[in-house]
Design a protein that fits this description.
Blueprint: H1 2-63, H2 70-77, E1 86-91, E2 100-105
Length: 106
């Protein structure tokens, strides 16, 4: 009886250690995926900002004036983005002044 009791205690400790290691691994995996997702969102935000500013500059080079709205860029210069994911603030400052463009992740 005495040896059986030690074996069951050892088995329970081993199970607890395995469960603890499993939980730590799941936590590390979740943290890694979350970190990659955040990095990807930031890169998409930067890419959208660059696409808008390049389109604004391209419009000025071709037409001689900056676009009056973001809708104009969408219609004539192919700017597309997920409006549920990003907020774009486009403030025209005049036909010959570079507009103020801000992109935020929601």
């Amino acid at each position: 009886m005495r040896f059986q009791n030690d074996r069951s205690t050892s088995s329970a400790k081993s199970l607890l250690i395995s469960a603890g290691v499993f939980i730590v691994l799941i936590g590390a995996f979740y943290f890694g995926v979350s970190s990659l997702s955040t990095k990807a969102d930031k890169e998409q935000e930067q890419a959208l900002y660059q696409a808008i500013t390049q389109s604004v500059t391209h419009c000025y080079a071709i037409e001689g004036t900056y676009p009056e709205s973001l809708d104009y860029l969408k219609k004539y210069y192919g700017i597309t983005y997920d409006s549920n994911k990003f907020f774009v603030d486009y403030q025209p400052l005049g036909s010959n002044l570079l507009p103020d463009v801000t992109v935020f992740s929601k």
